[in-house]
Each structure stands twice: as structure tokens, then as C-alpha cells.
Amino acid sequence: MWTHASWQGRFLSSRLPAGERLRSYAGWCNAVEGNTTFYATPSRGTVESWARQTYPDFRFVLKLPKPITHERRLTGVEQDLHPFLDAIEPLGPRVHALWVQLPGSFGPLDLALLSGFLRGLPRAHRYAVEVRHRAFFEDERSARLLEKVLAEANAEWVPFDTTFFFAQPPTTDAEREGWARKPRMPRRVRALTDRPVVRYMGRDDAEATAGSWGPWVDTVTAWLREGRSPTFFLHTPGNREAPALARRFHDEVRARLPELEPLPEPPADEEPLTLF
């Protein structure tokens, strides 16, 4: 998620080849969702380049490959899991969490599979699980059973908050596409570990998005005061202004907690940024 065409020359240096643009992104934000790993396990050389382009406390939240979570549904996955874990080894502590995104069909009756899978994973990594089955959000017993499975593995529950995105009909082509593809997920603000991970979906209207995230500013601030280390990922349908919006969110949290470290300064050789 660091090579959007609309970011080139604005958030990403136009002087860098595609394989080096993570370096520019890391000057804007200190964490990234590793969505590409869902579609293919990267080569070790590629991962080594990611490590070279980021500082040691940069956070990667890497999605497990699709064959593991969606095709084999967490069973008999060794032939895909071990090559993936070997490939990401050069990132070392930059791997903040491995992200287990499960399909919408993975429901309460499948929790035994999830439990066994999490128990078999190496303890060298932390894990964060995203579920999309409605029962986990609408049935208290199902939610508690999932929380128990996650707690036993010290794994986090990743909320994908799309409530604001679906609150009004779409007004742009990107929003219309998102309405057809994105899951309608409720807001969930309960953290299970000291490393909460949140995914938030805004709109293409940057000001409207910034006006919508107040409850999450409250929650993230409270988590930080409790000694947790949250990671907040902000999306919009086109993601055109996502890095600037992410920094704006961080600034709002930091206004309440001045002791929170600032984000890195963007590279000085970038073109001046027009936010909105």
C-alpha cells in the first residue's frame, strides 16, 4: 500500500523507482498494511529491500497469503506458511503483527480451526485476526467465544470500521465501487492485547472523513493512556489523500497527548503538499 499512482510526486518521490518508494512512504507514516502478501509471497530479496528502506521501529502488519486463510481455511497450510515466514524474516522486529484476515463465510462453527491454527504458529510473531462473519458482531456468545480463542493465543481482534463509509450513498466512482466490494462492518472498540490494530474506512471527501473519526480519536487516546501501542490504518475509497489524513489523525491524538512521539518528517525533496 505504498505505490498508488496518485501519490507519485506528492507523497512518493518521483525520482525513485517503484521498488524504492517505500522509503518515501516511511517519511509520511510509520506503519503499513501488507496487502500484497495476500496475493503472493514476496521473494526474500524484495523483503530485504523493505528492511533497507525503513527504520527498525517501522511497523509492518502483513496479511497471510490467500491460500492459507481463504483456500485451505487454516488447515494443511504448512507448504504455504513456512515459505512465507522464511521470506519475511529479514524484517525482524519491523513485523508488528501477522494479519489473519478470514473470509465472511468463516463463522462461529469454525472457531476450533482458528484455535488450532493459532496454537501451531511460532511465538516469534504477534497475530491479529480480522473476521467478517456477522455473528461475531451480532451474537454476544459468538463474540465471547472468539475473544476466548484469541486471548489464549495473545492475538488481537482487528476491527474494520466501515460505518461512516456506508452511512450515506456513494457520490464518486471509487465510492460506488467500494459499496459493491467492501463489507458492511459495525464499529468495535474493545482491545484484547497491548497492540490493538484498527482499520477505518472514510469517504473521498477528506473533510467529511476527518469529521467522522472523533470516536476513534477518543479510543486511541484512551488506549495510549492505558499503556497500549495501537496501530490505526486509515483508508478512503481512492486513497488519494490517505497519508495526509493519517498524519492529521495522528496530530489530533497528539494534541491530547503531547508526549506522543511525532510522525517522521516527510522527505525534504518532495513537492509541496496541498492537503485539501
From TrEMBL:
Q: What's the superkingdom here?
A: Bacteria
Give start-end positions of Acidic residues composition bias.
Answer: 267-276
Disordered, as annotated region: 257-276
A Pfam family name for this chain? DUF72
The protein's name is DUF72 domain-containing protein
